[in-house]
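Justification of resources, computational component.

The compute hours requested in this renewal are based largely on the per-chain cost of generating structure records like the one below. Each record pairs the submitted sequence with a full C-alpha cell output. That output is archived, and it is also reused by downstream analysis tasks.
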Amino acid sequence: MEESINTIRPLFQSCFERLTADQWHLVASGRPDINTKHILAHMLVKVLGDLSGVWSNPGVKRNRLHESVNSSVTLSIKETLGIKSVYSPSTDKLTELISTEVEDLVKTPRTQTRITTPHRLNAMIILLCNILEAMAGKQKKQAKVKQSIFRRKQTTPRQSTQSVQDIILDEVNQILKPILDDMSRTEYKMLKEEFSADIADIARTVTESMRPQGTGGPKSPQQSHRLVQVNVKICDFFAKMFIRASMCQITSQIKAKFTREAKVTDSESFRSLMVDVEYVLRTTDETTLSAQTWQLSTLLYTHVTGQTRQARRRAPVSVPRRHYSMYLDIRGRVIRFLSLFWWWLSNQVISTVQCSI
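The structure output for this chain reads:
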C-alpha cells in the first residue's frame, strides 16, 4: 500500500491546490463548475494510469489490489484535506470504482488499448465532488469567497460581437487552465493565435443569429435552423480547441522529459501535426481504440523527433531501441488523452456551448 499512496498522494495534493477559493465554494455548495470537473478528470485519469503501473503484475490477487487502492485513495484525500475522516456513502463507491478500473486496466493485454469510459469517469468525478462537498465543513481552513466566476449575463440580441467574443474567450481560458503549467508562453500564444480568427467568426455568427426576426412571437424555422447551425459550429470549435491544447500539452511534456531525443519544432510543424491528429479523430471513434492509440502515438513520436509530415503518414514507423522508453511514455499519455477527450465530448462540450451563447 505504501507504494500506491506515495504514487497518488502528490496527485491529489497538486489537484486540490489548483482549485481556487471560488471553485471550492462551488464544490461545497454542490455546484462544481466546468473547469473544476476538468481538473478533477485530469487528476483521476492520471491516478488510474499510475496505479495500474504500480499493480502491473497480472498475477496480483484481486483482494489485495482492491484493499490497497481503496486505502490509498482514502488516505490521500484525508491527508490532503487535513481531516481525520473522509467516510461518506460516496467514499466507498468511489474507491470501489477506482480499484475496479485499475483491475480492468491491469488485465488488459499490452497489445490492446483500454480507456476509462466516459460514463465511468464521469461517475468518479461526481462521487469525488460529493465527497468534497461533504467534507467542506471539516476542513481546517475554509476560505471566504466572492461571487462565482462563472456567473454571467445572458447574451441578448443587443450585445456586440465583441461581448460574445469575450465570453467565448473566457470559456477557452477555463479549458486551458488545467494544462497551462505544462505550456510555455510561446506555445500558449501560438494556441491563442490559432483560435483568434475562429473565435471572431463564431462571435459574429452568434450575434447575427440572436437578432430579432420580425415582431415577437416564436422563432421562425429559419432562425431555429440558424441556432442549430451555431450550436454545431461552437461544438466543433471547442472540440478542436480541446484536441489542440491537449496535443500541445503532451508535446511539451515529452520534450521536457526526453530532452536528448526530442527535436525543436516550429509552429508550422505543429499545425501540420494538428491536421493529422484531427483527421484521425474524425475518421475513427472510441470503438477503434487500438487504431486510434497507435496512429496518435506514431504522429506524436514522429513530430517530437523531427520527422516530416510525409514520414508521419507512412506506416509503419520504425522506432529505434533507444526511443522505446519515449514511445511507451507517449502511448501512455495518448491513452489518458483519449479517456479525457471522450469524457469531455460526452459530458462537458454541451455545457461549454451553453455558457457561450
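The chain has two domains: 2-138, 161-212+220-356. The two ends are 48 Å apart (CA to CA).
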